[in-house]
């Protein structure tokens, strides 16, 4: 009988127990996978770029910046391209259907984040046809069932037209797909000129400037330079990368990272306790067999390996099932919840599977190795 | 029947006395149940605490008028002529009037502002509410804990207790930069931990001027005679403006906001806790199967002495439930000690941060505890059944 066959036979000695252990491991890694995917998806950190910088008012995102800042930002030698946008938040049809429209200069946006958003020259040209045209993100279009050519009315929460009405009509000119599935496409892109010309208040202001630094320039240093430009003006700025911004934004909702760590921590502690104890029991149960193996001349190291292999197998099968279920859940959940199972998460989970598999097997394996033959036989 | 009960009792007692032999694995079951219970209790306490913060904010004797077909303050807009018309109206439509006969009303706007507490910390979004001088009076349960109220046309703010406690720099007499201008803190107010405490209050005109919101009114607060006057107010509102106006009771306004967020928290908490419970049930099954294996000889001996299958089954099941009970109690105790009163904050309906404290109430404990018991009851069932199926002769021969 070969070594691996012996390990396998050992594993299925009590099938129910092994299956239960595998379920334990699978559940723990399912929880880990889901929470990690949620964090990755909600922060869009896989898609959020560290190279693109956003400039907003230090008094908060909802406070306007004068568009006159554009010239001064553009003239910075380390800046490659600059775009700007005004955020028009509102709802379509029912109040719960919140839509965010970024009113921007399409050509400038294309230059700064075109590839990330999946903008193509064809889309930009379609948008250019008339002032009230709109490009809609794939996720937003799917959620509402919108098609190209449809007319929609966005009722803004804040921005009113000069006649006091807050309904903005748009015609959908195209749908952009985003660079990958983890790109946030739950928003729409409109013309800045259209919104700016008709709004009652805060004309010639923007919500944010977005810019791309020249190659080789450190984004964090450039951010400091730009903030220094406006430090003593009436509206100082805060410049940060898209990633920093999203992290800060999410942290306001709840310290998601902390909750995730607590929950997965609790799950893993539970699991480890159960498995170590069960394995100690399982090894104690087969002391007699171990005694036989030792009498037959099997080395102590091989006996230790045997028990280790068994726990590791439980972890690999269970962890694999857990990750497969996570993948299934991310596919089923749909883009609205935004679960993203990145290769990084899988790699981390695999590492944890191996480390835990060996760590939990260590104590029972050590016990098995230390069992003296005489006492092993005395049990019977 | 009484024989069964007696036998079960004896076997259960023998069972519990033999627990120290299986101390490690039994402890792991207790702790795993405790952890599941604590995680669920944590999420439920969060959802409960948020609800309490918002429910405490609303009174059903106060009406909030919103305009433009919305039922939230964000996105509401009341035209100036509508307010003039309403104030010009004589007759009783359910709203209290002051001695001079004019309506007790407060026009209000909310401005969300980013605030960086200290250099290099994350910015937080705060809600600054501009209101008429009557505003603080049209709120039940609000007390000025320190200082005085803002004066009209002065850049002065009164700060809620939560903000004053959470952020440095809001002491009375200090100046704070909100938006592009500096404001002086002149008072602190408290409202029993409700959502109001996460707001900053200032004079309406000053706020409008500082944030370029000239002429805007988002909501109009009115004090009603009693809760039933709301419908007569709504009838009156139909006729005064072309803009659609709607009066909702303050209590409903905040309860609706609470519902959404509290639901989301529960939507995360329950699946996570149930998943963990599945894992813990598998663990409980293993623990109890080990227990049956460990007691093989005892069970077989007692059965040979004439003890019934039922008593063997129940005794094992009781052991599982007893362990789960200890776990549930531990978990509830830990969550109560650890989470109750924990200060948390999230983003509320106006996109500004709302502070609340986790609250481990009776029904939170009950729900979490029942889940813990269910783990024991389910995890103990199959091993309990297995205990009845022990082949006696083989079991007795196994060891000696």
UniProtKB/TrEMBL annotation, chain A:
MacB-like periplasmic core domain segment(s): 21-228
InterPro entries linked to this entry: ABC-4/HrtB_transporter (IPR051125), ABC3_permease_C (IPR003838), MacB_PCD (IPR025857)
Pfam family, one: FtsX
Statement: the UniProt record of this protein carries the keyword Membrane: yes
Location within or outside the cell: Cell membrane
Sequence ranges assigned to domain ABC3 transporter permease C-terminal in this UniProt record: 265-372
Keywords from the named record: Cell membrane, Membrane, Transmembrane, Transmembrane helix
Spans traversing the lipid bilayer: 258-283, 303-325, 345-366
UniProt topology in membrane: Multi-pass membrane protein
GO cellular component: plasma membrane
Top-level taxon in the UniProt lineage: Bacteria
Protein name per the record: Putative ABC transport system permease protein
Organism of this sequence: Sulfitobacter undariae
From TrEMBL, chain B:
Membrane topology, from the record: Multi-pass membrane protein
Ranges of residues in domain MacB-like periplasmic core: 29-239
GO molecular function: transmembrane transporter activity
Cited InterPro entries: ABC3_permease_C, MacB_PCD, Macrolide_Exporter_MacB
Transmembrane segment boundaries: 267-289, 310-337, 364-387
Subcellular location: Cell membrane
Gene Ontology CC: plasma membrane
Assigned keywords, A-Z: Cell membrane, Membrane, Transmembrane, Transmembrane helix
Residue ranges of every copy of the ABC3 transporter permease C-terminal domain listed in the record: 273-391
Lineage: superkingdom: Bacteria
PANTHER family reported in the protein's UniProt record: ABC TRANSPORTER PERMEASE, MEMBRANE COMPONENT OF TRANSPORTER-RELATED
Record's protein name: Putative ABC transport system permease protein
Upper lineage: Bacteria, Pseudomonadati, Pseudomonadota, Alphaproteobacteria, Rhodobacterales
């Amino acid at each position: 009988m070969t070594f691996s066959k012996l390990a396998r036979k050992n594993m299925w000695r009590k099938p129910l127990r092994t299956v239960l252990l595998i379920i334990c491991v699978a559940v723990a890694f399912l929880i880990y996978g889901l929470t990690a995917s949620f964090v990755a998806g909600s922060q869009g950190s896989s898609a959020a770029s560290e190279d693109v910088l956003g400039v907003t008012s230090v008094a908060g995102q909802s406070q306007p910046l004068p568009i006159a800042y554009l010239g001064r930002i553009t003239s910075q030698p380390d800046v490659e391209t600059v775009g700007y946008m005004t955020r028009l938040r509102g709802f379509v049809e029912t109040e719960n259907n919140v839509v965010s429209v970024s009113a921007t200069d399409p050509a400038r946006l294309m230059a700064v984040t075109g590839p990330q958003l999946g903008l193509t020259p064809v889309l930009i040209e379609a948008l250019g046809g008339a002032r009230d045209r709109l490009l809609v993100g794939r996720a937003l279009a799917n959620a509402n069932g919108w098609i190209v050519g449809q007319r929609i009315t966005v009722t803004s929460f804040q921005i009113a037209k000069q006649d006091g009405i807050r309904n903005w009509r748009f015609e959908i000119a195209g749908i952009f797909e985003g660079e990958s599935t983890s790109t946030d496409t739950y928003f729409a892109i409109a013309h800045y000129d259209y919104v700016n010309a008709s709004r009652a208040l805060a004309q010639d202001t923007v919500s944010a400037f977005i810019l791309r630094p020249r190659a080789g320039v450190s984004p964090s240093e450039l951010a400091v330079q730009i903030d220094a430009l406006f430090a003593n003006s009436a509206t100082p700025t805060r410049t940060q990368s898209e990633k920093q911004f999203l992290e800060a934004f999410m942290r306001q909702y709840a310290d998601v990272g902390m909750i995730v760590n607590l929950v997965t921590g609790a799950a893993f502690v539970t699991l480890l306790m159960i498995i170590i104890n069960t394995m100690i029991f399982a090894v104690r149960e087969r002391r007699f067999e171990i005694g036989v193996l030792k009498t037959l001349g099997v080395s102590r190291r091989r006996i230790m390996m045997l028990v280790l292999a068994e726990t590791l197998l439980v972890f690999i099968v269970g962890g694999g099932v857990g990750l497969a279920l996570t993948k299934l859940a991310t596919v089923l959940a749909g883009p609205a919840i935004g679960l993203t199972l990145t290769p990084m998460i899988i790699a981390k989970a695999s590492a944890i599977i191996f480390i835990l598999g060996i760590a939990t097997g260590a104590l029972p394996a050590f016990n098995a190795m230390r069992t003296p033959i005489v006492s092993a036989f005395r049990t019977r | 029947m009484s024989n069964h009960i007696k036998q079960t009792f004896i076997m259960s007692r023998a069972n519990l006395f033999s627990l120290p032999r299986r101390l490690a694995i039994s402890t792991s079951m207790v702790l795993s149940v405790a952890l599941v219970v604590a995680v669920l209790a944590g999420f439920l306490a969060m959802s409960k605490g948020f609800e309490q913060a918002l429910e405490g904010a609303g009174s059903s004797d106060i009406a909030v008028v919103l305009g433009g077909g919305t039922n939230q303050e964000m996105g509401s807009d009341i035209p100036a002529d509508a307010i003039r018309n309403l104030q010009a109206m004589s007759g009783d439509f359910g709203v209290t009037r002051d001695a001079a006969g004019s309506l007790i009303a407060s026009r209000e706007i909310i401005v969300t502002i980013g605030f960086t507490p200290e250099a290099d910390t994350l910015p937080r979004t705060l809600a600054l509410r501009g209101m008429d001088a009557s505003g603080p009076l049209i709120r039940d349960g609000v007390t000025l804990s320190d200082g005085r109220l803002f004066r009209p046309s002065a850049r002065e703010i009164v700060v809620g207790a939560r903000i004053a406690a959470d952020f440095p720099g809001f002491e009375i007499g200090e100046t704070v930069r909100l938006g592009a201008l500096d404001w002086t803190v002149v008072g602190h107010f408290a409202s029993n931990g409700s959502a109001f405490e996460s707001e900053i209050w200032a004079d309406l005109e000053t706020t409008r001027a500082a944030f370029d919101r000239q002429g805007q009114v988002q909501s109009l607060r009115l004090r009603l005679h009693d809760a039933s006057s709301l419908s007569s107010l709504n009838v009156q509102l139909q006729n005064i403006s072309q803009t659609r106006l709607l009066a909702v009771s303050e209590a409903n306004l905040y309860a609706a906001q609470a519902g959404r967020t509290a639901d989301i928290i529960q939507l995360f908490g329950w699946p996570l806790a149930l998943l963990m419970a599945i894992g813990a049930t598998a663990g409980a099954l293993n623990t109890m199967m080990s227990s049956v294996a460990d007691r093989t000889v005892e069970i077989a001996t007692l059965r040979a002495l004439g003890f019934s299958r039922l008593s063997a089954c129940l005794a094992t099941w009781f052991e599982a439930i007893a362990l789960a009970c200890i776990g549930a109690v531990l978990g509830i105790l830990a969550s109560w000690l650890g989470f109750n009163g924990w200060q948390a904050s999230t983003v509320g309906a106006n996109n500004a941060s709302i502070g609340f404290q986790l609250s481990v109430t009776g029904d939170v404990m009950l729900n979490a505890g029942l889940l813990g018991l269910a783990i024991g009851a389910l995890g103990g069932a199959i091993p309990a059944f297995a205990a009845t199926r022990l082949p006696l002769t083989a079991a007795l021969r196994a060891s000696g």
